[in-house]
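Many introductory courses stop at the sequence. We go one step further.
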Amino acid sequence: MFVGLGVWLSYLGLLRYLAFDKHYSMILNTIVVALPHLARFMVCVIIVSLAYIFCGWLILSPVNKKFTTFWVTMETLFSLLNGDDMFATFDLVKTKKLGILTTDNPYIFPHIPLLLCLFLYLCCA
C-alpha cells in the first residue's frame, strides 16, 4: 500500500514539473478544463447503469440465475457490454411466463446499444 502511495505522490510531483514545458502545459490545461465535463458525463453513465442493474435485479431475479443478486446482475450486464456470453444470456432470459416475457426483451436489447454505442464510444471520442 505504501509503495502505491509513493508512486502516486511521485506522479503528482512529475505533473508539477511538466507544467513548465509549453507542450505539456497545453495538455495539462486541456485535462483541467475537460475534467468537470468528464465528471458530469461519468455521473450520468453511472446513474443509467445503476438503473439498468436495479431493474434487472428486481424484475428478472426470480426467473433467471444470471440476475439473482445485485453483483451477479452487474457482472452479467458488464459481460454483455464486452460481448461475452451473449447467446447464453439471451437464451436464459427467454421464459415461459407471460408477464416476464413482455419485460425481458425490451430490457436486454436496448442495454447494449445504449450503454455500448452511446456512452462508451462517446467517452472515447
